């Protein structure tokens, strides 16, 4: 009986998840693409991959310099 109870509980969780997904507001892909392009265009000056870093000190991807003592 314990297996049936856990199976029933799992099925209820799946049904709840499907109900939540079915009730989500959806938009057309063409509208989502327009929104994404607009967002990227508005925020491109803040994107370090597009415009670079203001100095090498703020670049977390710069090559680390090593100190060699002779």
Description:
It is a single chain. The protein is mainly alpha-helical and 70 residues long. The chain has helices at 2-22, 29-43, 48-51.
| Tally of DSSP helical segments | 3
Distance between the termini: 75 Å
* Major β-sheet annotation: none
Report the strand count: 0
Radius of gyration: 25 Å
Portion of residues within helices = 55-70%
Calculate the mean pLDDT score and round it: 87
Shape: flat
Low-confidence stretches: none
Structural class of the helices, strands and pairings? Answer: mainly alpha
Tags for this model:
mainly alpha; 0% strand; flat
What's the arrangement of secondary structure elements?
Blueprint: H1 2-22, H2 29-43, H3 48-51
What does this entry show, briefly?
This protein has 70 residues and is an all-alpha fold. Helix content is 57%, strand content 0%. The chain has three helices and no strands.
């Amino acid at each position: 009986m314990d297996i049936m109870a856990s199976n029933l509980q799992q099925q209820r969780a799946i049904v709840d998840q499907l109900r939540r997904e079915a009730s989500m507001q959806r938009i057309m892909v063409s509208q989502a693409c327009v929104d994404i392009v607009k967002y990227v265009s508005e925020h491109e000056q803040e994107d370090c991959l597009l415009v670079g870093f203001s100095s090498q000190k703020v670049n977390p991807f710069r090559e680390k310099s090593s100190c060699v003592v002779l």
